[in-house]
Write a structure and sequence with these properties.
mainly beta, Immunoglobulin-like, 5-stranded antiparallel sheet, Fibronectin type-III domain-containing protein
Length: 581
């Protein structure tokens, strides 16, 4: 890590712009390598649990480079099944773990990090509320403590499946209800303010069963939802996609299917303004149930559609567009793999052709429920396993590299070799109108309970620690340069070489005049870039750049007085200096 100090001497470049060249007291980490560096990717597999059953339904990378995972626990908590949330570091180690629940069954299906660094959780609860099960939404702080908690429902079953924070700071929640609406089950959507108050609530459905599994806010501030309809199907049930405006009014609505049962599990708006949908089909494909991916245009028209599967049951759970314009798909397969059911992960290009495909599992049951691309362009996959771990079934998280690979000690990976099959569904318009519902909102009073799930490391890649900062006596280096332009500060620095591996960088800032290391995090990740532009409305700061790898940050060398700090025992020294790690 390198310490920089701004000198306030400035000179006039021209009469239109003033740029202050900054004198630097800074030592960079080893010799520079080309700007387009290859970022080392950690891989690992952890099982988390107790003596009973645990599984995960949602996982995300967090702003500081760790991960948040949510599901259910049968081994801990106050009821039969409780919400279980675990905060993990970049290597999969547990930072904290907590359960939330009452005397009955309570299950979380969706978690998101919020703009304040905390989390929003959507679940259903049978312990609290007005009906047999209600929507349950909890706002957590960064340590997992509850800020507010509320149920929404009335009468019978109301189950939440997906939640997102939206641009106004509130939340959109989607699930199903069998109390409100026109039919047996209807889609139920709640627009909440930042404190969980209801802004509006609406149902969508026909005379039979209709439900939603996925929601996202779109770039026009409206919403896209995907699920299943038995009210408007061609066959036994069809995928149902509805585009809504910001007030929940319907822009367009369409079904996709044929003679069998077809349902959607996940939808995302893509960078071209269209949508990618993944689900499971009995109408098309090679076997019983197959994964089904549909690429839609902005109006819901089909651009392409393909199935992926073998002779037995294979079903999808989640899809995400990746940084290269393709897609990552996760599901569970009985057609391939080592055991009963196995995780199945497929990387697709922008046209739905397969780039790579692997199963992950053992002799028992292994079910994948969530996938997330990470900042190092690898992938997180989460679900449940009874092939590994300490109980009947454990929550299982895999960290893959960008090609789906893991360390050679991870012996549970099997390549598959299926080819996608084009399907021939038609998009069919439906004509329902939304109905206003009257779900009752109620505060609940549970407390977060620390749990003590076992963390079993199944396998991992052994990566080097990040580089220690070189010093004037021992290491050459390319110094960090800084250029002030208006209220922006341009920083660039050399990247490490040698045996030390660097995945990312963090930037810290302290105040002048110098009183010691009084820095705080300014930027916790540059996504591996050796360049950053940050706001700097004052020259009274010094800056520190720290190399990162696997949750560790590289040590610093000199202090601001150019005095050598005690020599480290190795050039690749972990030095946890701040909250970015």
């Amino acid at each position: 890590m390198d310490l920089l100090k701004i000198n306030k001497k400035a000179f006039m470049m021209n009469n239109k712009s003033i740029q202050i060249m900054i004198f630097i007291v800074f030592i960079v980490i080893l010799i520079a390598i080309p700007a387009l560096e290859v970022i080392a990717q950690s891989t690992w597999a952890h099982a988390y649990g107790g003596v009973n059953n645990e599984s995960a339904y949602s996982i995300k990378q967090t702003s500081e480079g760790g991960y948040i995972v949510a599901g259910y626990a049968g081994s801990f908590g106050t009821g039969s099944i409780d919400l279980w949330v675990l905060k993990l570091d970049a290597s999969g180690g547990i930072v904290w773990q907590k359960t939330y629940g009452g005397s009955d069954n309570d299950v979380v299906h969706s978690i998101e990090q919020t703009s304040d660094g905390g989390y929003i959780v959507a679940a259903y609860t049978q312990s609290f509320g007005a009906g047999s099960s209600d929507f349950w939404v909890l706002k957590l702080d960064a340590s997992g403590e509850i800020i507010w908690q509320k149920t929404y429902g009335e009468g019978l079953q109301d189950n939440a499946y997906s939640i997102k924070q939206i641009i106004d700071g509130g939340y959109i929640v989607a699930g199903f209800t069998d109390y409100f609406g026109a039919g047996n089950w209807d889609v139920l959507m709640l627009k909440l303010d930042a404190n969980g108050g209801i802004v509006w609530q609406k149902t969508y459905g026909g005379s039979n069963q209709d439900f939603v599994d996925s929601i996202q806010q779109t770039t026009d501030t409206g919403y896209i939802i995907a699920g299943y309809t038995h009210s408007f199907e061609i066959g036994g049930g069809d995928i149902w996609v509805i585009k809504l405006d910001a007030s929940g009014g319907i822009v367009w609505q369409r079904t996709y299917g044929l003679g069998g049962i077809d349902n959607a599990e996940s939808i995302q708006q893509t960078t071209d303004g269209g949508y990618i949908v993944v689900g499971t089909t009995l109408s098309f494909g090679a076997g019983a149930e197959d994964l089904w991916v549909l690429k839609l245009d902005p109006s819901g028209g089909i651009i392409w559609q393909k199935t992926y599967g073998g002779s037995s049951n294979d079903y999808a759970e989640s899809i995400q567009q990746t940084t290269d314009g393709g897609y990552i798909v996760v599901g569970t397969t009985l057609s391939f793999g080592a055991g009963n059911y196995d995780f199945w992960v497929l990387k697709l290009d922008a046209s739905g052709e397969i780039i790579w495909q692997n199963t992950y599992g053992g002799a028992g049951w292994d079910e994948a429920n969530a996938v997330h691309q990470t900042s190092d362009e690898g992938y997180l996959v989460a679900g449940g396993t009874d092939s590994f771990g300490s109980g009947n079934s454990d929550l299982w998280v895999l960290k893959l590299d960008s090609f789906g690979n893991m360390d050679t000690t991870c012996t549970f990976i099997i390549d598959t070799s299926i080819m996608p099959i084009n399907s021939s569904a038609m998009a069919t318009d439906t004509t329902i109108s939304p109905a206003v519902s009257s779900a009752i909102i109620a505060n609940t009073g549970v407390s977060a309970v620390d749990s003590y799930g076992t963390d079993i490391l199944i396998c991992s890649t052994a990566l080097s620690l990040p580089g220690g900062v070189p010093d004037n006596d021992n290491y050459a280096g390319v110094p960090l340069t800084m250029l002030k332009s208006g209220s922006d500060l341009y920083l660039s620095w050399g990247s490490p070489s040698g045996t030390c591996i660097t995945q990312d960088y963090s930037i810290y800032r302290g105040t002048l005049p110098w009183t010691g290391y009084n820095y705080s995090p300014e930027v916790c990740t540059t996504s591996g870039e050796t360049f950053a532009i940050i706001p700097a409305d004052s020259d009274s700061y010094y800056y520190i750049i720290a190399a990162q790898n696997g949750g560790n940050e590289g040590s610093y060398g000199l202090d601001s007085s150019n005095e050598q700090r005690p020599a480290s025992s190795a050039s690749c020294l972990p030095q946890q200096i701040g909250s970015c790690n």
